[in-house]
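Late entry, evening session. Most of the bench is empty. Finally got around to the prediction I had been postponing all week. Sequence below, unchanged from the version circulated by S.P.
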Amino acid sequence: MTVEQAAPCNKKWFAVDADGQVVGRLATRIATVLMGKHKPDYTPNVDSGDYVVVVNVDRIRFTGRQMSHPTIPYYTTKTAQKVYQRFSGFPSGRKIMTAADRLAKKPDDILMNAVRRMLPKTKLGRNMLMKLRLFSGPKHDHQAQRPAEFPTFV
């Protein structure tokens, strides 16, 4: 039995604008491109995915009824209700933040964690996650790579 080995392949750069897009739906499209499942030569044990540059991460939205907020665009009912938890392991070490708080403090963490949880939980998945670049504003640092538009078929 032969196993497909990692061969050098051309990695493309894609750019996507997250302005007004739903977190989970965008994360699945990004994870598909990072894993390389959009390519015909996809192999699960080879990192054949492409690079993804995401701009306007601070303007991402959650589903739910639209509400008004002075600083957060696309503020919805789910933004106020969704809770992110982490635990340090120590007594009273449980930290709870709503999606609105997290969007105000670290807007790129929401999309990064959504994509990270959709990738494999192995060394290969960590390497795939390094190909994701997130930016809060409309500009990014990867103009030299000339990223193409995000594929619509994904």
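Two things to note before I forget:
The beta strands are 13-17, 51-55, 83-87, 94-98, 132-134, 148-149.
The helical segments are 23-35, 77-81, 99-105, 107-116, 123-129.
Will write this up properly tomorrow.
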